[in-house]
Amino acid sequence: MNRLPHWDMTRIYPSPDSEEFISDIEKVKEIGHKLEALCSADASLLELIALKDSGDAIIINLTAYADAMLTTDSENEVYLKAVAAAEEASVEYQRSEDVFLRTLSSRKDEFSAPDLLPYKKYLDDIVIESSHLMSPEEEALAAELSRSGSSAWERLMSTVTSTISSDGKTLTELRLLASDADRNVRVDAYEKEIELLSNHKNAIAACLNGVKGTVLTLERRRGWKDPLDRSLFSSCIDREILDCLISAMEESLPVFQSYFRMKARLLGLEKMDFCDLFAPVGKSDKTYSFDEARTIVVSSYSAFSPEMGAFAENAFSSGWIDAEPRKGKTGGAYDTFFPLAGESRVFCNFDGSYDSVSTLAHELGHAYHDSVVKYLPPSLSTYPMTLAETASIFGEMLVFDYVLSSSGEESKLPVIESFIQSAAQVIVDIYSRFLFERSVFDERRKGEISAERLSVLMLRAQEKAYGDGIGIKHEYMWAVKSHYYSADFSYYNYPYAFGELFALSLYSMRNEPEFPSLYKKVLRSTGMMDAASCAAIAGADIRSEEFWKKGFSVIAEYVEMLGRWC
User: What is the pTM of this model?
Assistant: First the structure.
């Protein structure tokens, strides 16, 4: 295999210590000062929003760039310095954001002006958010302390998990072996992973305690009853919608546990363990070169929409993708958008598996979503996590159907199983993560939680989700999922299940003549409407449990199909 691509970041900034990067650091500080001055003057609300948008675009660009560079080399001193500089600018800029929120909230009697109509949701959210602010002095202190507090804990977790290794293999590389066809390899990698995490569990537990403790303190001081309430607000849904989703997820668990038992039989096992969840099944030992993955993604996107196909081709040819696993590079995959360039970048760890191809399609789906809203200002284009997964899951499904339709009968088995495997992660594992995080917040209110206790809580959550579908579980999953370590967004889990089922509902409409344009309309509206209103564009009622069950029925159909091979 030729060397996998590294992304080209020069169109964003020439380097983290470049004149352009440093200039934007200063520019966003100046905008912040100007915004504060205008808030004290008699500026129009539209003028204030426009200035805030210009500052937001720069700060998003700076932080996204610095964070992205650091994920490719977590010990690089230049990248660490850039992250610190971006954080410093962000902290200073956050003070002007605080003044902006308070100013607009105090002028809500002006919100009905005709020229502010497109900003209705944005302004309504500001009123709610401003009601949950501490005093200006306290907010400024909280922002400044975050650099040496929650953000530092998050960076430490990332640094530890991306650099520890066993027999020359990093944790990221060991986790990739979970999809190896040889069970001996999987078991060995799993045991080494557990040993590594056990050796570093106290440091990582300190990180989690630091982040969750900070969240609980600040949310309480800001008047949020529970971190989940803040999360729901950020996700643009309410408890009624979440309850419908969680209830439907719980009802689906027997279907997935049945799948785990089927997969055990396909693997020749009496019962699967956690290390077998990502094991390939079927006779096909098909692996994909990166060029083959490119062809599949571009072709499947093009079959649905020539515009989407052209977008994907441009992403590959323009150096938007960093695909090579390597020392210092963190695990996982993500898409990040740079508003000043109007471009995205995709981060992944490509290993030649079908899952890697699907991951590319997933992240490029995010990037396509970014391209649909890129001409809108941040105030109208910043969409919530719940709707953020719509385009990514849709992209996955396009690749799934494309590969399935071009596969022979024997080759269909691994493709179908991979789809169900992915769905199981998004529903079953996400359910366990939701339960775990809720229990962590409950216990963190009472004091520090030991690493041993975190493992108990993790196993308890996995038992409820996986049941007897698998045997040996993973007591240290709390130590490898970076989502737990974000102080900015708690419960970084249920939105994935929301996105999966919402996207499956949309996908069932894909063959309708006008659907590609309707699909773009839904994506374009994600930053301007709450989730229920956005879903209504596609005729979906997300307050109904029946809606969520329709999404599950698609998955259940493939689970039933899998039974043909058992």
Answer: 0.85
